Every structure is written in C-alpha cells, then in structure tokens.
Amino acid sequence: MFATTMPAWQKIKSIAVLAPLTILAACATQETGAPPAPSKTPLPVAVQAPKPVETPQQKELRELIGQQDRLYRVAAPLLTTNAQLCRGNAHNLLGFTAKNKYSFPIEYADTARSLGYDERLQVTGVLPGSGAEQAGIQRGDVLMSVAGKPMPQGTDAERQAAVLLSPLVVKKAPISLGVLRNGQTRVLNVPLTFACAFSIELGNADNVNTYADGRRVLITRGMLKFAQTDEELAYLIAKDMAHNILGHAIRQRMVSTIAEVIDNLLLPHPDPTTTAGTAGIRVYPQDLDAAADTLSLYLLARAGYGIDNVPAFWKRLADQYPSSVPNGYTALHPSTTYRLSMIDKVTQIVKAKQEAGKPLVP
C-alpha cells in the first residue's frame, strides 16, 4: 500500500536541500589565501509539490461561505450598536456563529468535510465588538464544552447547542466555553453581548429582493450581488431591521406568509413558485415604508455607516428593477418618490444631530 521508492520530485527536493551543505563543506577545505574558483554548476532549484486543484463544488461552497461571511460582517455593527432602538428585539448573545458539516446543504456534506468541517461545531464568524471577540474566540475554534458539559455534535448539533445555551444566556453572567485550537484545549469565559437578536440570512434565489418576518432579515443572492459595496448592503439590512423593529409584518398581517417565503429560500433547492409575483406579500404602504426608512438612517448612523449615498442607492435600485418587475424589491416598495423625499429630510436631521453631539434617536 505504501511504496518504498522515493518519487522523482521528492528526490530533486532532497538534493536541493542537501546541496548547499555540500558547497559549504567544500569551501571549508579551501586553502587560505587562494580565492575559491567560481562554480560553473548552476545552483539547484527547489521543486515544490503542486497545489491541489480545487473542485467546482469546493469553489461553490467557498463562495457560499464567503457570501454568508459578508452578510455577518456588515450586519455586526448594526446589531451591536442598536440594542437601544431594537426595543424588545434585543437579547444577550454569545457573539459568534458556529457550524459543522451538517449545517450546509446535504450535497455539500463531503465537500464541507474536505474544507475542515466534521461532526463538531466550529466557529465560523465572530461578531466585532462582542464579548466573544473580547474573550479571544477565533474563527476555526472547535467547540468542545459549555459550562463544563460536552458540546453537542452531529446532525442536530446547532439546535441542541441552542437548547443547552438558552438557560445560560438569561443569567447575564459570562459563559465558560471549552475550545480546541491548534490541537490544544483551552477554556474561555465569554461575556454576553446585549444586541439586536435578528438573524441575518442569505436567500438562495437570484431575484433582487429582501424579506423581513419580524425576527429574520433575508437578503437574496441576487440582491447581494446588486449591492456594489458593503455600505450599500448595510442600507438593505438596516431597512429590514427597521421593518422588524416597527412590527410591520404584524401590522400587514403577513408574518406567516413572509416566514414561508424565507423558509423556502433557505432550502438548497427552493420552490421558485413561492417567489412568483409578489409571493402573496402585500405591498408596503408609503407611510410604513417611510417610517422604516427613517429608522434605518438612525440605525446606520449609530453603526458608523455613512448615509449620504442612501438616496442614490434606492433610486438606482428602483431604476434598474422598477415595480413592473414582479418579484423585485420595488414591486413590494413602490413609493420611491415619496421615500426619497423623506430620506432627504431625515438625513439632514440625523447629520445635524451628529454635528451637535446629540443622541441619535428618532
């Protein structure tokens, strides 16, 4: 099973390593006073093993993970700096995400293993400014224990871990986590982070839209590509966070309908008929939409994002995907002219408060 003959490339590499030692030994035997004769033998070149070629599925999964990372990174300051404005939607959080190979679509299970994911949960993202970051939790840490109890593993690990952690986070005391890093186990005391408790999800669809069901914000893959910068992506997340804070899905009596759309778009192979037209979601009236725009500007400013380019972004979105595009954003948020006029007014109010050092609250 294991060949005893050294491969040709490995022989070349071994010679390349040993050759300089031979040269040094020869120089040591030179007579003093006589300059060494220049060597006509070319210096050996080390041959490196070829890098493994990434499979198309590995590339797809890396792209998916990268998109999720982008969402999490952009959303982080919006979640951590706006607990005051999130009202009853703010809770104590650990401040990191964790996945195992079962966290990805089933067709990616083997690919996830090839990228280092196994039965155990490992940290995939740390919320900047969170207690997890302060405690030293790092991406790639494998979760071994919580409060002295073994961390769940396997197909249902994420849900079981949430059940295990749920009674601990309400106590507000730091939580003891055992993590495996570079082959060594260490125990870290992680302070809890009081933040907006909305989950930010990536939707598996190419239509340019977003959805908010009161507890989740979903950005479709198509909308993620449309957002040219992280700041533009922040505009979208903040707008739907504002819809959730203001309870607009409840007021529209659309919680279950929007939740079904989000649930579907989280599947590896969503049913495209559920996003046809407006997906049964009622169009947002201009007063609710403008109220969400107003609150979103405060959420953005408090999180350190610029707000000068907000009107230009929404105008570009409406121009490229007008309300006539049935499964696009403007079809559900048609009052673009009214929204832009309100955004201009509120932007000036927010900037005036910033310059005067006043609290950034509506």
* Straight-line N-to-C gap: 71 Å
Enumerate how many helices there are, as a single number: 14
Largest sheet: 4 strands, antiparallel
Give me the side-by-side strand order of the main sheet: 5-4-6-7
Overall number of strands: 11
Mean pLDDT over the full residue set: 85
Coarse shape: globular
Provide the domain count: 2
**Which strand-content bin applies to the residues?**
5-15%
**H-E order:** HHHEEHEHEEHEEEEEEHHHHHHHH
Describe the structure.
By secondary structure, the protein is of the alpha+beta class. The chain folds into 2 domains: 91-196, Pdz3 Domain, CATH 2.30.42.10; 199-356, no CATH class. The protein is 45% helix and 14% strand. It has helices at 8-28, 56-80, 83-86, 109-114, 131-135, 157-169, 221-226, 230-245, 248-251, 255-265, 286-302, 310-320, 329-332, 336-356, and strands at 90-93, 96-99, 122-126, 142-146, 149-150, 175-181, 184-190, 193-196, 199-203, 210-212, 216-220. The strands form 4 sheets. A 4-stranded antiparallel β-sheet has the order 5-4-6-7. A 3-stranded mixed β-sheet has the order 9-11-10, with helices on both faces. Mean pLDDT is 85; it is low at 1-34. Pfam families: PDZ_6, Peptidase_M48. Residues 82-151 form the PDZ domain. InterPro entries: Mito/Outer_Membr_Metalloprot, PDZ, PDZ_6, PDZ_sf, Peptidase_M48.
